[in-house]
């Protein structure tokens, strides 16, 4: 046979198997160039080992160059016409060659082996179906596993490509597949019956009593597969499909995911060739794997580019993919194309699924549920959206990372985005608007259920499909689940719809303030404030600045928060926005109290309470009473503090506002702890912690732990107090709340002193002081410095403690911290007494006693009385 005839026959055989040159080369483990040269008739004497490998993939005994003589043992092929099929088919050894470029999948291979073993042990037919998205490596895995299992099936291994997603051709019918299988089983053409049922019966009879492995690659659906299944135990059927074959009830199913990072980089190195990626390119190789979505097909294409372009560095390819507006353009070569394989999956979809898939390319976030999908596609009912999403999941064009939520693989998303760009003019814009309307409206409804700050009622038409948010728990769950999508929607709107962006920022204000991180919250609200300013809507800007100020205050930036609130008050006043004005006053009062300006805080709260009362805004009233109760407590007016806090608690209870109740209870606990009623204080703090936990409010939990620690400490349970302080500190650190961290550290250091280890408490107290000085919390600084001085005194260094107490006294007077001022007098008096200067101690101790009695601090007063008695 001439080289030209051999090349023509090879080409015909390859095409009859539906293989490209690249695919044949990969499976046979030979170069593309070698096969191309043989097919063109340019290789006069192909190497025997090359021909053996190619023949094995094509399912023939041996392609030879014997002059017109088929290989030894050859028989006529399927066509009985002396054409390329004249090369004898080894009917029982048809597995394609396993590629040597195979990384990972050990767990999946073990699962297939285990399925075969388990089914055999109970005498069942073994059916294993491998599904996954296009390019995920289903065929490679199945062929790899089949080669590992083939020794168990000595009667033969059959292979059929069913062409469900082969470009340019229709899926093979069950009848044609059966004809191929029967010929492989050496049934003469004239003996093959015409109908599917008759062919299936004959096929089952030929396999009965044998141990045969059947690999059905690239299957369309269960209907195509069902006639191709043997009828009894002893055989193994491996199936690959891009569709989940849910109709095969007896099949062991295995859905492939992308490779992990290590497996993906290993495959890249294998394909690129030895030493192609240097040791210092490990990070770049990992990034390349991520840019390829860790999808085996994309990884092979990228690796081949590195192999065949020696001048191309890994970093160069990474830069190309990272900077590309359409990454898929770079993931193709002469034989393979990621876009093309996605396109064949898309082409098999019904029109309704195709439309939804295109629209999913418009998503601003990473995932979606049925409610969002229904609004995106304007479907009108939830059930239809669920069915379409599940259908896309079954076709492995969507991934499901948790029940009811779906996402696109990065490269599939890029393909969907390309298709979305080809939508009919005017279709993409309304679809995006419907989705953003849904996020905005539902987020505002959810926030209305969870907010601690009163807001204007939700306006605008409700989306056609929306979740049922029956209570605060459901609202919090929805907000936290959709957080990433809401922030992505905000980012999308910020570029071309500023009013929507401002409203989305407002709708996420409670979520961002409660869950943090606060640097992200500040970025969102700062951006929103800039957009609101450009809109020239003073009421909107006032509310936005108040949201920003609240988060600044949480971070300890009281100066910045106060500045934002001054501007917010001005805008709300000009716009006649009474609710926004009252909210800003209440927050400004809280900040004034923190910074020691409690008289100013009282005035702000008086005006806020008047405004809330005129508006009949009960949540605002409860908030203002809570804040005023705190101011009264700091001033030492404990009866007034208790009155305001009980009024706040009643208001929150009437509203069913759990977090408000918890806040009021926690503050009442502090009042009772301060006045020496430790059992009541502990009970209130425990109730507060329970309510905050129910609501999932981490900052509330942290504050409750602070109060609970104080109550434990004064009740004498110092180790429980230390544990509570540590839990508070951990939460405050997670929230990046510096003021909270300072309070927790101050408590922790103090409780360690009470437990008999003052030296261990000093670093905690120093950290607290550093934090309060950095954020400008002067009142808290005075409190922490008092604790620090007392802890130094507990170490026996009374001279240094005396100097520190004098600094405490000065700072407490400047910040109007009356209780701390009294404590400083007590500390100075006690230091004088310990230093033997009894004549100097009496005046300070007398002052401390009078101040503590006036403040109603019975425990502190008793302690000072004991010191005076000891001095006399």
| Count of DSSP strands | 8
Class inferred from helices and paired strands: mainly alpha
Low-confidence stretches: 66-91
* Strand numbers in spatial order across the main sheet: 2-3-4-1-5
Number of helices: 41
Give the distance, in angstroms, between the N- and C-terminal Cα atoms.
Answer: 126 Å
Strand percent estimate: under 5%
Q: Biggest sheet, in brief?
A: 5 strands, parallel
Choose one word for the global shape. elongated
Calculate the mean pLDDT score and round it.
87
C-alpha Rg, in Å? 38 Å
Helix fraction?
A: 55-70%
Quick summary of this structure?
The chain has 41 helices and eight strands.
List keywords for this structure.
872 residues, mainly alpha, five-stranded parallel sheet, 41 helices
Write the layout of secondary structure elements.
Layout: H1 3-16, H2 21-28, H3 32-39, H4 48-58, H5 106-121, E1 126-131, H6 138-149, E2 157-161, H7 174-184, H8 196-207, E3 213-219, H9 222-225, E4 236-241, E5 252-255, H10 261-272, H11 282-291, H12 296-308, H13 314-323, H14 338-347, H15 351-360, E6 367-368, H16 370-376, H17 382-394, E7 399-402, E8 405-407, H18 410-420, H19 428-450, H20 472-481, H21 483-496, H22 498-507, H23 509-515, H24 518-535, H25 538-554, H26 558-575, H27 578-594, H28 598-615, H29 618-635, H30 638-655, H31 658-674, H32 678-695, H33 698-714, H34 718-734, H35 738-754, H36 758-775, H37 778-794, H38 798-814, H39 818-834, H40 838-855, H41 858-871
Helix pairs in contact: 2-3, 2-4, 5-6, 7-8, 10-11, 10-12, 11-13, 15-17, 15-18, 16-17, 16-19, 19-20, 19-21, 19-22, 21-22, 22-24, 23-24, 24-25, 25-26, 25-27, 26-27, 27-28, 27-29, 28-29, 29-30, 29-31, 30-31, 31-32, 31-33, 32-33, 33-34, 33-35, 34-35, 35-36, 35-37, 36-37, 37-38, 37-39, 38-39, 39-40, ...
């Amino acid at each position: 046979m001439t080289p030209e005839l051999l090349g023509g026959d090879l080409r015909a055989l390859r095409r009859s198997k539906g293989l490209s040159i690249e695919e044949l080369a990969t499976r046979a483990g030979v170069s593309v160039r070698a096969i191309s040269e043989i097919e063109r008739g340019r290789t006069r004497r192909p190497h025997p080992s090359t021909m053996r490998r190619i023949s094995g993939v094509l399912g023939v005994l041996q392609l030879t160059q014997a002059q017109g003589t088929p290989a030894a043992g050859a028989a006529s092929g399927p066509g009985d016409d002396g054409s390329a099929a004249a090369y004898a088919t080894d009917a029982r050894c048809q597995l394609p060659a396993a590629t040597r470029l195979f990384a990972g999948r050990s767990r999946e291979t073990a699962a297939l082996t285990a399925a075969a073993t388990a089914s055999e042990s109970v005498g069942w037919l073994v059916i294993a179906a491998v599904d996954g998205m296009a390019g995920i490596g289903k065929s490679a895995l199945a062929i790899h596993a089949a080669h590992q299992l083939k020794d168990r099936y000595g009667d033969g291994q059959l292979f059929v490509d069913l062409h469900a997603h082969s470009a340019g051709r229709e899926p093979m019918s069950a009848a044609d597949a059966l004809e191929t299988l029967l010929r492989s089983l050496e049934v003469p053409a004239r003996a093959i019956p015409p109908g599917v049922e008759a062919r299936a019966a004959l096929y089952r009879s030929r396999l009965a009593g044998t141990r045969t492995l059947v690999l059905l690659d690239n299957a369309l659906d269960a209907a195509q597969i069902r006639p191709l299944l043997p009828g009894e135990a002893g055989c193994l059927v491996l199936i690959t499909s891009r569709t989940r074959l849910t109709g095969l009830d007896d099949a062991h199913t295995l859905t492939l995911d992308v490779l992990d990072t290590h497996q993906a980089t290993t495959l890249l190195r294998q394909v690129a060739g030895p030493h192609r990626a240097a040791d210092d390119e490990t990070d770049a190789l990992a990034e390349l794997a991520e840019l390829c979505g860790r999808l085996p097909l994309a990884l092979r294409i990228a690796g081949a580019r590195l192999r065949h372009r020696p001048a191309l560095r890994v970093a160069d390819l990474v830069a190309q993919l990272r900077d590309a507006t359409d990454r898929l353009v770079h993931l193709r070569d002469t034989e393979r194309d990621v876009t093309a394989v996605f396109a064949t999956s898309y082409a098999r979809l019904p029109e309704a699924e195709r439309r939804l898939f295109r629209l999913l390319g418009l998503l601003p976030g990473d995932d979606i549920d049925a409610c969002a999908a229904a609004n995106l596609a304007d479907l009108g009912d939830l059930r239809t959206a669920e069915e379409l999403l599940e259908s896309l999941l079954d076709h492995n064009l969507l991934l499901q990372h948790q029940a009811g939520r779906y996402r696109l693989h990065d490269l599939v998303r890029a393909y969907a985005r390309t298709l979305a760009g080809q939508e009919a003019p005017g279709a993409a814009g309304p679809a995006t608007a419907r989705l953003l309307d849904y996020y905005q409206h539902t987020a505002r409804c959810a926030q209305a259920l969870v907010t601690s700050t009163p807001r204007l009622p939700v306006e605008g038409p409700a989306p056609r499909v929306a979740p049922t948010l029956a209570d605060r728990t459901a609202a919090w769950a929805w907000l936290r689940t959709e957080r990433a999508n809401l922030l992505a929607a905000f980012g999308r709107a910020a570029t071309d719809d500023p009013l929507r962006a401002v409203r989305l920022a407002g709708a996420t204000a409670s979520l961002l303030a409660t869950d943090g991180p606060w640097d992200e919250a500040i970025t969102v609200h700062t951006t929103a404030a800039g957009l609101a300013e450009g809109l020239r809507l003073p009421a909107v800007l006032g509310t936005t600045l108040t949201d920003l100020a609240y988060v600044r205050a949480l971070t300890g930036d009281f100066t910045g928060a106060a500045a934002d609130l001054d501007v917010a008050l001005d805008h709300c006043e000009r716009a006649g926005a009474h609710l926004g004005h009252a909210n800003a006053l209440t927050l400004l009062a809280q900040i004034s109290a923190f910074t020691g300006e409690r008289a100013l805080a009282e005035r702000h709260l008086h005006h806020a309470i008047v405004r809330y009362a005129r508006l009949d805004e009960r949540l605002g009233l409860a908030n203002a009473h809570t804040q005023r109760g705190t101011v009264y407590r700091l001033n030492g007016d404990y009866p007034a503090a208790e009155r305001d806090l009980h009024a706040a608690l009643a208001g929150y209870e009437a509203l069913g506002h759990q977090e408000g109740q918890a806040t009021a209870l926690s503050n009442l606990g502090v009042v009772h702890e301060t006045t020496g009623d430790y059992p009541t204080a502990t009970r209130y703090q425990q109730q507060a912690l329970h309510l905050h936990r129910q609501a999932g409010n981490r900052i509330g939990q942290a504050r409750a732990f602070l109060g609970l620690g104080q109550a434990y400490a004064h009740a004498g349970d110092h180790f429980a107090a230390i544990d509570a302080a540590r839990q508070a500190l951990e939460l405050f650190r997670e929230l990046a709340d510096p003021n909270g961290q300072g309070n927790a550290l101050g408590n922790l250091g103090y409780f360690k002193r009470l437990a008999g280890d003052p030296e261990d408490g000093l670093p905690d107290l120093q950290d607290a002081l550093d934090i309060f000085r950095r954020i400008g919390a002067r009142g808290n600084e005075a409190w922490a410095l008092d604790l620090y001085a007392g802890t130094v005194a507990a170490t026996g260094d009374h001279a240094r403690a005396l100097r520190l107490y004098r600094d405490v006294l000065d700072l407490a007077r400047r910040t109007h911290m009356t209780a701390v001022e009294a404590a400083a007098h007590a500390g100075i008096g006690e230091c004088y007494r310990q230093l033997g200067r009894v004549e100097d101690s009496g005046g300070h101790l007398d002052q401390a006693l009078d101040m503590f009695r006036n403040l109603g601090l019975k425990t502190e007063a008793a302690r000072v009385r004991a010191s005076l008695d000891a001095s006399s």
